[in-house]
């Protein structure tokens, strides 16, 4: 959930510095990984343990990223009429994703204890242990700004898109919705905790 949590935090922490230059770079890398490696991992069992087909990896998201990179690389500017439409539609995508996730949550009869236990382990590993490990490693080689940005990216909640992917490929939509909602709410506590803990790590 890089867009909802990490980007605002990067702006708040590094506005007016070179730190914000990492936002488009990290967004591109994040999205490409989600819709290639991430999609493969999501559908691993459904595909019988095989690698996802090229047709599945070539989707509107990866195609749009490639198209955008080509436009930027060659300095091609699209007409304002086209850009206005793209901007308007892009601005809606985040809200629509949250609405879709909310609808799935509304249809859940109740969070099972077994599911809650699994998601609690997910919160511990994804939102605390892994970000701290990445920060501890990155801080040995990178400046503080880059280390904190990597910490925030690693400590972001589960992506909202996972609910849509789960629905698209007939996976566990309820579990995906629960994971997104619980990890997102947990970030209210885990992000401040991460900053408290990294203040104790010698750099």
Kindly, what is the distance between the CA atoms of the first and last residues, rounded to a whole number of angstroms?
28 Å
- The gyration radius over C-alpha positions equals 18 Å
Instruction: Characterize the biggest β-sheet.
Output: none
SSE topology string? HHHHHHHHH
Number-wise, the strands total 0
Low-confidence stretches: none
Strand content: under 5%
Helix content: over 70%
- Helix-strand category: mainly alpha
How would you describe what is shown here?
With 203 residues, the chain is an all-alpha fold. It contains nine helices and no strands. The chain has helices at residues 2-14, 22-42, 54-57, 60-73, 80-106, 113-138, 144-154, 161-168, 173-198. Helix 6 (113-138) packs antiparallel against helix 7 and helix 8 (161-168) runs antiparallel to helix 9. The longest helix has 27 residues, at 80-106. The radius of gyration is 18 Å and the shape is globular. The two termini are 28 Å apart. The relative contact order is 0.14.
């Amino acid at each position: 959930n890089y867009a909802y949590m990490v980007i605002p935090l990067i702006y708040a922490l590094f506005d007016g510095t070179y730190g914000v230059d990492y936002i488009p770079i990290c967004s591109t890398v994040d999205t490409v990984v989600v819709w290639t490696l991430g999609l493969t991992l999501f559908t691993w069992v459904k595909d019988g343990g095989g690698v996802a087909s090229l047709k599945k990896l070539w989707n509107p998201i990866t195609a749009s990223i490639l198209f955008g990179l080509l436009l930027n690389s060659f300095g091609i500017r699209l007409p304002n009429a086209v850009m206005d439409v793209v901007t308007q539609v892009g601005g809606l995508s985040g809200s629509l994703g949250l609405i879709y996730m909310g609808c799935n949550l509304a249809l859940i009869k109740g969070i099972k204890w077994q599911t809650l236990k699994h998601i609690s382990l997910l919160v511990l590993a994804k939102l605390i242990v892994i970000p701290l490990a990445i920060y501890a490693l990155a801080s040995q080689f990178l400046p503080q700004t880059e280390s904190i940005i990597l910490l925030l990216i690693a400590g972001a909640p589960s992506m909202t898109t996972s609910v849509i992917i789960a629905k698209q490929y007939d996976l566990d939509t309820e579990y995906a919705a629960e994971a997104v909602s619980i990890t997102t709410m947990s970030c209210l506590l885990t992000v401040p905790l991460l900053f408290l803990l990294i203040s104790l790590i010698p750099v």
